[in-house]
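[recover] target loaded
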């Protein structure tokens, strides 16, 4: 009798373990590096509301992620920091459906908290000998930085000479925007151009922020989409829907992103 009860007990344990294994699902999300903190919090909230689901993130520059997707890297969701890299993934046949804008962001200049170069404004980025760090050429934040400099070059108070001087001050081009922020925080550069969302709570004591006026700024739009071969299409779509939901948008705003337009959040699937 005891053996029979023990056998039944063990059978129940094995059955429960198998059921749990079957219920366990993994969701792989490729996301722009600037989304790290916000998406880690969103991922934790999503896991809590979807028992048995583990969200695994691959954070990096959007250009690197798009290239990985184009080369066939497995992923369920792609969240880019600009439309161009999302389009690159679409052109490679890796995106299913219509991407939707889920957040917006804006540029700021950051300097070390002791500000050794005494950078007070955008004009100071052109001072001789300034060590400026920016993202690499194909990274979205660099494209926005270039657009900012092009707009400034058209202003009489700045001009093409200003743009040339700023570009000459670049001492390092980083793989992603988080590496730019880290170098400035560590005092390895006099200034850097990042998104406002990159000035996270752990960096606020390490850097000073210099705003970029709207006339020269670029409001970055972040698109998100399910890939062409998700392991679980319904689960991947559920994650996208969560990012676009009020709860997901609140988390993004908490991390200094601008919420997506309501039409983007509530538009029907195409």
């Amino acid at each position: 009798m005891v053996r029979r009860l023990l056998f039944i007990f063990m059978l129940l344990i094995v059955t429960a373990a198998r059921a749990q294994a079957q219920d366990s699902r993994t969701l792989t999300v490729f996301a722009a590096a600037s989304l790290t903190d916000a998406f880690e919090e969103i991922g934790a909230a999503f896991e809590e509301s979807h028992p048995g689901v583990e969200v695994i993130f691959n954070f990096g520059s959007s250009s690197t992620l798009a290239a990985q997707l184009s080369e066939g890297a497995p992923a369920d969701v792609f969240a880019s920091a600009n439309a161009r890299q999302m389009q690159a993934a679409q052109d490679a046949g890796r995106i299913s459906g219509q991407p939707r804008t889920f957040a917006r962001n804006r540029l700021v200049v950051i300097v070390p908290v002791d500000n050794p170069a005494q950078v007070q404004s955008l004009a100071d980025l052109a001072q001789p000998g300034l060590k400026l760090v920016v993202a690499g050429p194909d990274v979205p934040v660099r494209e926005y930085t270039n657009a900012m400099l092009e707009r400034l070059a058209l202003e009489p108070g700045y001009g093409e000479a200003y743009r040339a001087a700023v570009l000459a001050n670049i001492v390092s081009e980083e793989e992603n925007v988080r590496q730019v922020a880290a170098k400035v925080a560590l005092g390895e550069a006099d200034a850097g151009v990042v998104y406002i969302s990159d000035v996270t709570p752990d960096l606020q004591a390490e850097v000073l922020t210099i705003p970029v006026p709207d006339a020269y700024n670029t409001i970055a739009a972040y698109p998100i989409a399910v890939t062409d071969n998700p392991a679980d299409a319904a689960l991947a779509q559920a994650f996208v829907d969560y990012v676009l939901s009020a709860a997901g948008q609140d988390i993004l705003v908490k991390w200094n992103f601008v919420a997506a337009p309501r039409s983007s959040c509530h538009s029907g699937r195409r």
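[recover] notes: The first helix runs from residue 2 to 23.
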